[in-house]
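User: Predict the structure for this protein chain, please.
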Amino acid sequence: MEQQHTFRNQVNEQSVLCLSSEEITSLRVKHNSIQFHVLEGRAWVTYEDNDVIVESGETINIPSSKYQVIISSAIKYKTIRYQIV
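Assistant: Here is the predicted structure, written as structure tokens:
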């Protein structure tokens, strides 16, 4: 199952989001960059020409782009919990 989110200028999403190992989500960062923070698990994040593994406790900056950002669990059978801040 794929979910899709669009984050626009001045959006601050503080809720904790979960993604099971069978799910993939995508988002588009329209204006300002966003901070992607993993609370639990290990996320595989693909944006522009980058594939990044984000470990629990780590945060990465994702710049605005015309391309979608793809997020999935990097560990089979492991749910990830994350925040967009």
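The longest strand covers residues 34-40.
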